[in-house]
Amino acid sequence: VGIGEWVNVLAHSNGELNSMPAIYLNTQTYRWVILFFSFLTLCVSNGMTLAGPTVFDEEILNGLAQITGSEIPLGAFKLTGLIMFLTAGGLGFFAGALADRVGVKPLMLIGLAMLAAGNFLFGQIQSLTNLYWVYAGFGLSLTLCGLMLNVMLVSRWFVHGRGLAIGLLLAGTSLGNGFFPPLNAWLLGIIGDWREVFAWIALIPLGL
Length: 208
Prior knowledge:
- The chain crosses the membrane at residues 32-56, 76-99, 106-125, 131-151, 163-180.
- This protein has one domain (34-207): Growth Hormone, Chain: A.
- The chain is built from ten helices and no strands.
- With 208 residues, the chain is an all-alpha fold.
- Helix 2 packs across helix 9 (162-191), helix 6 packs antiparallel against helix 10 (194-201) and helix 8 (147-157) packs across helix 9 (162-191).
């Protein structure tokens, strides 16, 4: 609904919600549905790429050391975060421009699919180089279904109350980073194998 149509709707409503056309009422309801799913998407995309994987740091280091026959330097291991954020930052401009052309939804669906694939591949890594590639994929996933595109989407649906909507949306980043570490730790305690845990949590983005 364009701005002109909103003005026309309000002009003919006389301030009474019940007299507004159905399209307005449907849009008023649907935008909260959009916000809810954007909130969940941001929660999952941030939690599964930022704080969530840190639960497995010790297991990953030990596992790679057994495969390679030598200890992995902690500094080299922690380059994963740099790789992820450089990828996300470097591709953000292009993702924003592409979203203006094709829309947000297809990019977010691709991002969620990549997030699922990245977590599955995380459980298959055999070297530090493999891990770097997984985190580069995480960076691209954050670009496509992370903060930027979700803010774009919610901003388009909320003309009034935009600040409240974006504030609620951004709470998803904190919730995701608070929720996934204990979830992953719980799954690790039950399953016992960190590689298998990644195979299971890879299903989460597909549910969105």
